[in-house]
What does this fold into?
Amino acid sequence: MVAPLVVFIGALAIYPTVLTVTEAFFHSDPLTPPNHFVGLGNFSAVFENPQVLHSIENTGWYALFGVVLTVAFGTGIALLLQRPFRGRGVLLAIVILPWALPGVVEGVIWSWIYNPTFGVLDSALKSAHLIGQYQLFIGSHQIETILLIALVQVWQITPLAALLVLAATQAIPDELYESARVDGANWYQHITRITLPLARPAIAIAAAEALVMSINIFDQVYVLNAAATTGSSLMSQTYFITFQDLNFGQGYALSLFATVATILLSLLILKVIYRKVEYS
Amino acid sequence: MTRRVGRLARIIALGIVVAWSLFPIYWALKTSLSTNVAAQSTPVQWWPGHLNFTAYQALFGAGPESQDAAGGIARSLINITVEATGATILTLIVSVLGAYAFARLHFRLKGVLFYGVIATLMLPVYATLIPLYRIMADLRLVDTYTGIILVYTSGFIPLAMWIMYNVFMALPRAIEEAAFMDGASTMQAFRKVVLPMARPGIAATAIVTFLFGWSQFIFPLVLSSSSTTQPLTVLLAAIDSRDVPYTIINAAAIVAVAVPAVIVFFLNRWIVTGITAGSVK
It folds into this structure.
């Protein structure tokens, strides 16, 4: 019964991962064969490439914006939906919707919102007198470009964080809130003293998932930033080095670096935020 | 008084959440139903005037504005449906069987294999993208449904297995034991007793897996080199706004949004089950 599963995972997950690890140390380029062992050659080549270094810096920003905004919005939404009320089911469906859509489609939809000539963002900001004239949002400033592209991904993954935290808040016994009320606790104290500490494991998992997804950001960058360096991410850089420049060896080296970084950082964020919660 | 203020603040906050979730989709829908002139007016028109379906007619090859760049949409819709559905079915078969074995049977190396599968949940796309492309190229499966479905399935199995494992672990063993007492074999007990009880969990896994399949982009971008297998997502990313009017681009986006949107509105209960079952460790 377990054989098909083992064959699939072995052949199409474990074996490719082993290839990534080993091939990163080989010269592997379909344009200039043969392949040969180069030790750390691929790594020194990619880490001397200023575009790669730029994309690593950008990915740090993507991760920062992605984790902070996703966890903040997701927790906020979970707190709003914590208590049952009429229409909560419909609201939950509305909240989930962006999570279910392809990242590429979201990129296309938001690129129209950010459009510098006909975009609704420019139009709304100008009508509100916040900007004097229409702006180019994507591609002019590094941090602004990254923030706006990150926002598209935050739109997509916030529902996941909201659901995780919401599930955790539903497990908190009502008696805790009741005894707090008897002691004269107000709404703010309920949240900071009861809800947030007890939802902490879920917040940690939501943060780790947001981190993994923002380090892997690609679809939104591909659509909104294309091949420009301004908002390039580690994943888009890896894609272009591998499948446009056909430099597989360097692609493998970057992939291995990103894989190790993703796993280490997500374990780190779990270790920092996660606390086991027990009800006694 | 403070209570009323609190309630008002809550309603405003909920309104912001609804606007944040729906506005981008509304905006694409509104643009897709406008004329090109109305879509490009400055300042923007917040509401659609007279509803105009020419963008959709152009997308599906009718009407004066039919464009080559958007012309492949019918084919890419078939492709994305075949690929997402095929991967969902294959993922379900493989992961339901495997999860049941891990939850109930005893066999050699069970622990190692189980943690091996779970560990692949942590692997990012980076770890497998380039080798999977090369493996599929060696097998001559680039630009085929088979290649794409195999790659999707390998990526979806770990999560599906994990959800189904938790579903099976939560089922009471007593019912299977009663079936064994009546002389049923493992396979019979699995088919007649366990599968029907696990149906809600299987539905949740199927829905979440299908949505993942519908969303795939980087793998088909690399693995499908022609319109014979390109899913809607890859086609959409390739449309150039210098050649195709914004109304048509937004109509194509709305077509890609429609299927997941229908699933979310009718089946969101299972999505919540699937997501929370797959993430709480």
Remarks:
- The CA atoms of residues 200 and 270 of chain B lie 8 Å apart.
- Chain B has a mean pLDDT of 89.
- Chain B has two domains: 2-52, 71-279.
